[in-house]
Amino acid sequence: MPAQRPRVFSREFKEAAVRRILDGEKVRALAAELQVWPKLLYHWWNRYERGGSEALRPPGRPRGSAAWAERSRPTPSAQSGKAGIKAKGEHRTPEDVAKSERVAELERKIGQQALELDFFARALRHVKASARPSDGRGARPSLP
After folding, report:
1. Where would I find the beta strands (DSSP E) of the chain?
2. Which of 34, 37, 49, 130 fits a 20 to 30 Å CA distance from 84?
3. For 23-42, how does the pLDDT look when each residue is reduced to its tens digit (9 = 90+)?
4. Residue 1 C-beta-side C-alpha neighbours within 13 Å
5. What angle do CA 39, 35, 27 make, to 5 degrees?
6. Residues 33 and 20 sit within 8 Å (Cβ to Cβ)
7. Which residue from 81, 80, 84, 79 is spatially nearest to 97, judged by alpha carbons?
């Protein structure tokens, strides 16, 4: 029996799956439909949240390609682990360190707010979908 090769998914396929999750579909049901592991969908979702559709590139892209050259690179402070630690050969003033820490803090807040907006948008869709219409005058109310 020949060895089974791992499936490779296109960026469009991954993005379509993530968009369906963002529209409120259940991850397990979608994973069963697409015949992939739920963990893989969560992985794609996380990458999409961090870097958009560009983060959903297929694995194995050659390093010399144009897309690799255009990728976003981490700042030296992100590479060192802490904003206040100097990278090799880098001289940063206290003002630069304070600015980069403030930018990092604001980026975290923006990310948290984006997550909250997504949560409330899904909750609103759920509430709208579950509201039962009334049968007319004198009928029981749609909500208890």
Report:
1. none
2. 49
3. 999 999 999 999 999 999 99
4. 3
5. 45
6. no
7. 84
Spatial CB neighbours of 115, under 8 Å, sequence gap ≥ 6? 49
The secondary structure of the chain in percent helix, strand, coil, rounded to multiples of 5, reads: 60, 0, 40
Q: For residue 41, with 0-12 CB atoms within 10 Å meaning exposed, 13-18 middle and 19 or more buried, which class applies?
A: buried
The residue type at 61: R
Helix locations, 52-93, DSSP H: 66-69, 76-80
pTM of the entire predicted model: 0.41
Report, in angstroms and rounded to the nearest whole number, the Rg of the chain calculated over CA atoms: 23
Query: Is residue 42 within 8 Å of residue 27, measured between CB atoms?
Result: yes
Q: What tokens were used for 7?
A: 């499936």
Please give the structure tokens belonging to residue 131. Answer: 């509201």
